[in-house]
Every structure is written in structure tokens, then in C-alpha cells.
Amino acid sequence: xxxxxxxxxxxxxxxxxxxxxxxxxxxxxxxxxxxxxxxxxxxxxxxxxxxxxxxxxxxxxxxxxxxxxxxxxxxxxxxxxxxxxxxxxxxxxxxxxxxxxxxxxxxxxxxxxxxxx
Length: 117
Fold this sequence. Notes:
The chain is mostly helical and 117 residues long. Helix content is 50%, strand content 0%.
């Protein structure tokens, strides 16, 4: 009987390449939101860093912490709805990453950046 197929070495190679190019890596699942099936801090950090003016339209910097949290939750919930939408209807992981997402009160949020240069 042959050994079960293992992808661990392939996964480790991908992680090594990403870390070598500035990506962060955690050896555990701390911060993972199981209900939403994503890392909220990573997604929100990306959006705030890549499009701070647009992000501030939803998560107002001078709002109370409770209202900022509502804004962050609006973003997260919208992304989850897009991810859950069937691909044939414009949702799913690849469509969401490629096309970004809309949220009332803001411009389209992009989830990719073209290479510089």
C-alpha cells in the first residue's frame, strides 16, 4: 500500500517564497475568524494600507471605537457575502479577488495591486 499523498512540502515551499518577499506568516491560526473563514486583521490591514481614503469612508478615524467596529464588520460581512455568492453570479474567491467588492458609502475596494513598474 502506498503512503497517503502529502502536500506539506509544497505548502512549505509556497510559504517560504511568500515570506522571502515580505509576507507575514503565522505558525498557528491565531486571529482566524472561523465563522467568516478569514483573517479579519489581514484583510482590514490590506484595505487600510492599500486604499486609506476609501477605508476611512467606512471606518471613520474620528468615530467612536464602537462605530469603527461597526464599519469594520460591514466590510467583513460584505466580503463574506461576495465569497459565498456562486461564481456564476460574480462571487466566489477568484471573482472577489480579481474584481474587488462594492460597499455603499465607499468606492470599489480592490483586492489586488498590479505589479509596480
